[in-house]
Amino acid sequence: MMIATVAFAAVMPARGIGADITSFAVDAGIVFLFFLYGARISTADALIGMSHWRLQLAVAATTFVLFPVLGALISAASAGLIPKLLLTGLMFLCVLPSTVQSSIAFTSIARGNVPAALCAASASNIIGVVVTPLLAGWLLQAAGAQLSLGVFRDIVLQLLAPFVVGQLLRKWIGAWVTRNKKLLTIADRGSILLIIYAAFSRGMVSGVWSQIEPSDLAILLVVLGLLLSCVLLITKWASRSVFRFSAPDEVVLQFCGSTKSLASGLPIASVLFSGGGVGLIILPLMLFHQMQLIVCAILARHRGEQPQAALAEA
């Protein structure tokens, strides 16, 4: 569906009044998405899970410290090999929170500590609503992120406020959200596709895609694969050699720490970045999202098929 949306934007980009209507719809979609995240994520569960503070701290450090450090190193090594906007997108990817549904699903398949994964993913997204825009603005100020009063206003109005409202109303609407999960999933995926369409439309209208060669995309895929491999290997090593986690907790650190949220990243990018280049900035995130789903699904299934005795020994 994402590929089809990009193709549609290439053939029929939004222009003129159509672009204005699309922009308004994107703003409304972002508010809806973060309201929905607030209604879905249990703050109480996240706080209870903090009792396993070493694991939760390790996941948070992987998400918001290890990833940006690796991203900065890889970006420095890749400077001149791929366009600057793609490097900006790579750094933006590195400051995003963890996925919620995917990381919990992978943890369950791999027979990991599911309650701890739920807490880690929830805490990551609660923290990410505030930390991700600030980290992105700090790291990317020279690359196009605008830390003006207007951006802070948009962050508060479009991201933080609806998330807080969703949290406050969760007591009354949480059960309804759970019962209508399928309908709301269609709605929030539709909002994500709309954000992708608007971003790639701006790129087509401004001609930014003429800056990209097939070789740039090939190098980007290699860079993203290197980033994911490094995080997976480091979290596995740290779990066993540094923290000495149990096998179920190692699964949590590996899958909650290595995944990045497309659902949170696209709206935040729309608020932080402007102009036609936003399509290129979100491209690394879209590619990394597909890559992490495939790789982590294979790893989770492999771990889930291991005998319990082997897991305990590990």
Identify the notable features of this structure and list them briefly.
0% strand; mainly alpha; 314 residues; 14 helices; globular
Question: How are the SSEs ordered, and which strands pair?
Answer:
Layout (H helix, E strand, L loop, with lengths): L1 H10 L4 H25 L2 H7 L3 H26 L5 H11 L6 H9 L4 H27 L8 H31 L1 H26 L7 H29 L4 H12 L3 H11 L5 H27 L3 H6 L1
Short description:
The protein has helices at residues 2-11, 16-40, 43-49, 53-78, 84-94, 101-109, 114-140, 149-179, 181-206, 214-242, 247-258, 262-272, 278-304, 308-313. Helices cover 82% and strands 0% of the residues.
Give the helices and strands as they follow along the chain.
HHHHHHHHHHHHHH
- Structural class designation: mainly alpha
Distance between the termini: 39 Å
Which value, in Å, is the CA radius of gyration?
Answer: 19 Å
Q: Are there runs of 5+ residues with pLDDT below 50, and where? A: none
Number of strands: 0
Helix content: over 70%
Shape: globular
Number of helices: 14
Main beta-sheet strand count, sense and barrel state? none
- Average of per-residue pLDDT values: 83
Estimated share of beta-strand residues: under 5%
How would you describe what is shown here?
This protein has 314 residues and is mainly alpha-helical. The protein is 82% helix and 0% strand. It contains 14 helices and no strands. It has helices at 2-11, 16-40, 43-49, 53-78, 84-94, 101-109, 114-140, 149-179, 181-206, 214-242, 247-258, 262-272, 278-304, 308-313. Helix 1 (2-11) packs parallel to helix 9, helix 6 (101-109) runs parallel beside helix 13 and helix 10 (214-242) runs antiparallel to helix 11 (247-258). The radius of gyration is 19 Å and the shape is globular. The mean pLDDT is 83.
